[in-house]
Amino acid sequence: MHRVFLSLLIVCATACHNNTADDEPTAVPAPSELAITSLEKVEDEDSVLEAHEDIDWKEIEVFQFSKALIDNKVPLHTTLPRFTAALGEADSLVEPNWEYLCGTQFEDNFQYFYKDGSRFELYKDTLYCSEYKLTPGHTVVHAGVTFSSNTTWADVKKHFPRAVQQAENGGYTDMITLRDADVEDNDSSVRFYFENGKLVRIVYFVPC
């Protein structure tokens, strides 16, 4: 009888222990902890979105193409006598293909004037650059800043951070687009082209 009583006592004790373990509450984060975690995630997502937002065109930096100087001597928009006096005669003069001509600075008959890989439009004695190639030894100076074939993407980002950011937002690291004038609705723009991280061409872009 004594053994039966002890057996019953052991069974009851075991059952009570199991019930106590099952009834213990599971630890869960406090509401404030959940709120903080969620807020941190939202802030991280917002910062990513802001980095990839489009930049308004009127916020893009201006590069006044016509006033930029070749080798700090002659403007990109100049006269034939002034250009040849400083930089020499054309390497070649080429008649445009009028059938496929589009986005030019002159509407009247003109010739393409080539010098050291750069292209200009020549009408009478007026010479407008349409594409300047940055060859070794030659530079373009704008607002006191000198651009050359050694100018890097990082260098340009210091001077035109918004234009570079806009390009990077689109996944580009080989071209940036700048405004040509302070007038917002101006059709023309200026494009910097890069190869292997170095500036190679500055183009005056006129849409068709």
Give a short summary of the structure.
With 208 residues, the protein is of the alpha+beta class. Helix content is 32%, strand content 26%. It has helices at residues 2-23, 31-51, 80-87, 153-159, 161-169, and strands spanning 69-70, 74-75, 77-79, 92-94, 111-115, 118-123, 126-133, 140-142, 145-147, 175-179, 189-195, 198-205.
What count of structural domains?
A: 1
**What's the gyration radius in Å?**
35 Å
**Broad structural category:** alpha+beta
- Residue stretches low in confidence (pLDDT < 50, at least 5 long) are 1-49
Description:
There is one protein chain. Residues 1-49 have low confidence and may be disordered. The protein has one domain (58-205). Helix 4 packs across helix 5 (161-169). The protein is α+β, with helices and mostly antiparallel strands. The N and C termini lie far apart (110 Å). Strands 3, 4, 5, 6, 7, 10, 11 and 12 form an eight-stranded antiparallel β-sheet that branches. Strands 2-1-8-9 form a four-stranded antiparallel β-sheet. It has helices at 2-23, 31-51, 80-87, 153-159, 161-169; strands spanning 69-70, 74-75, 77-79, 92-94, 111-115, 118-123, 126-133, 140-142, 145-147, 175-179, 189-195, 198-205.
